[in-house]
Fold this protein.
Amino acid sequence: MRRYGTVLLGLILLLTPGMANAAPKKTAERAPVSSYEFVSEAGDYVGGGATRSYVAPKDSVTLSGNAETLTLGVRSADGKEWWDVQIAAPRGQRLQPGVYRDAERASFRTGRAPGLDVGGTGRGCNQVWGEFAVDQIETDASGAVTVFEATFTQNCEGPKAPALKGTVRWQAFPLSYKFVSDEGDYIGGGQTKSYRGANTVFTVGESFNGAITLGVSGQRDGWNVEFAPPKGQRLAVGTYTNAKRYPFNDGSPGLNVSGNGRGCNELSGSFTITELVTDAGGKVKAFAATYEQFCERGTAALRGTVHAFA
């Protein structure tokens, strides 16, 4: 499979029933999502000022084309509404994770412009001004797109026309990192930030003692989020309290969120592994978690959420 995504999954992790502070439970593997949702501003001709959400298998969602030009087709369960979302790379190129600005109507794009054309239920644009961001895209050996996730903004017939904003997914799992930092938190600096595949590279790795590390590089930031089990145990789905700074956690769960040149000398906190799915060989296929961290015995918290295909 040829991959254009931004996560490198190299984990080998075996689950065991023992876990501190919580009874482990096995999480059923979730199915990938194929969906389309949009918010149309008042006066937008295509969306008619409406807000809609369509999710397979209740609604029909199909994908055609390739990594150069693709179309997501959507039909509502009642058959009353249908939409086609066409997204195209500049001519001669292939779609990659990233942000594409100054999009023109896909079939009539000029020069180096990317293409966008959202229409349906009897309505469409003669001209398009817009942009889109590709968060995930994967192709198989034949070049067919097997995973796709993107957001878009389309202005119909003029650059200042009311906007149609939407998100499309094809066989996609969530891939993101976000945090909220209290005022006075040294690591996050009191910020609230969110990272997605269009502008961020995510890496996931495992240490010899079973700790999982998420690396986040994007928006001029670099973060490392580390979760570790107590010594002699292995991570599993559940909540871990009384966490200490990893790798100095010893008999306690380990946590360590650092980056941009900042880290804690001493920390306390907790985290919850909400999803951890492995294949038959023990390789991680999906990982999701939330955490709360306090640095240097302070009261200002850093709280975050991790989604790596989960």
Remarks:
- Confidence is low (pLDDT under 50) at residues 1-28.
- The radius of gyration is 22 Å.
- Residues 70 and 128 are 17 Å apart (CA to CA).
- The chain is about 0% helix and 55% strand.
